[in-house]
Amino acid sequence: MNRIIVKTQDGNVKISRHIYGHFSEHLGRCIYGGFWVGNDADTAAVIPNTQGVRNDVVAALRHIKIPNLRWPGGCFADEYHWKEGIGVRQDRPKMINTHWGGVTEDNSFGTHEFLELCEQLRCEPYICGNVGSGTVQELSQWVEYCNFDGVSPMAELRRKNGRIKPWKVRYWGIGNESWGCGGSMTPEFYADNYRRYATYARNYGDAQLYKIASGSNGTDLNWTRVLMEKASRHMDGLSLHYYTVPGDWAKKGAATEFSEAEWYITMRKAAHMDELMRKHGSIMDEFDPKRRVGMVIDEWGTWFDVEPGTNPGFLYQQNSLRDALVAGLHFNIFNNYAERVSMTNIAQTINVLQSVILTEGLKMILTPTYHVFDLYKVHQDAMKLPVYVESEASGDLPAVSASASEDSDGWLHVSLTNIDVKQEQEVKVELRGLTLSPSIKAKGRIVTAETMTAHNTFDKPDTVTVKDYSGVSVSGGGLAVTLPPMSVVTLDLA
Ligand code: AHR
Hints:
With 494 residues, this protein is of the alpha/beta class. It is built from 10 helices and 28 strands. Residues 25, 73-75, 176-177, 299, 347-348, 353 line the site of alpha-L-arabinofuranose (AHR).
């Protein structure tokens, strides 16, 4: 028997809605072919779009209440020169996307197109600036271009390009993976550079910036220590990247063909996020005990071998029930660290790595990961309720994980995962501080399937979806829950 205690009276930390954020890079078919149809007149004529942005994609992402979108990279960000992506589209210079397939980037999707996309999505933009190959002036001017309302060279240029009012972009990344593709810097060198670049990224009027320093690769605790010691005063957030890779980087494993052993390896690696957050978090606590600086996990998700026959530089992978469980595990961890984590961004929204959407020409499908975002959207900006979990073992891992919140309308939400491939789990949920009357109806929704490798295809788009869940009842003043094998559930109680 599994036991979960939810401390219903102890909710005093908000789960930032930005924990449910996204990341979209100029990589493969994420921007071009995913969001954007603007380039190709033939495609644009066929795929319904608004100013070049696919309508189906916008509707799907609004449904899960996408709170923010990080762009233009990733590694691409530190090669991107934003001035090449403004003005008349046909006149924009072309460049090589050296990181991702060596393809030609024609810069047709630039600052205006990205910010138009965010307005359509009703989400906050998060722009990652170029520190690796760009200048302090370039980043400073990008902020001025986006945010300044008065008379200035960049504000005039923006107006000339058709946008009168500033967008007031709040979230700015100061470089990406500066220890690697973003410039191969030492933490000391980057910390000094962070301070330089961040100094000239100005606040204009009420457009107060939230500046995010490039963080560790996951394992490098020293990076976090040096950054916190030398630059935490100047930052609002410090990032951390961690990918769930079942194999090694040379042979990561396939997205939809894997053994039970690989399922559990994947779960173990996903659960490792908890340890990373604890370790990096405790270093952050040493320098910032009041937790002013947010932990920003602006890249996370599964990374498998690309689908056979696709460009290895495009990182296109399918998405199965296994990805859904990885997402559920991550969200429970993130919710439970709400004191420190201010934002996370799954890599990447469409057609790249652990996508929530896949597209093929006119067609669009939602992945199992999308449906988990749908289940967890109720936690956005709700008060975190501390949970205590006593779980049965599934191999050497706990079978059950959980997180809980109370929203501003007084609803309680409890999310649960069962990673076990074969065993259902009986869970007794005690809502400490509340006694439920037997007449209360608990409702829930579930993402599950019969097989580990179940996934959605363009021919069968609804193999894994969200369904109503009836495996919960009020019992002994709490809840009795039966979690099927390989399931993610969210319960809602008025
Ligand atoms: O998401 C793919 C790549 O992974 C990003 O560009 C980079 O930041 C990370 O290494």
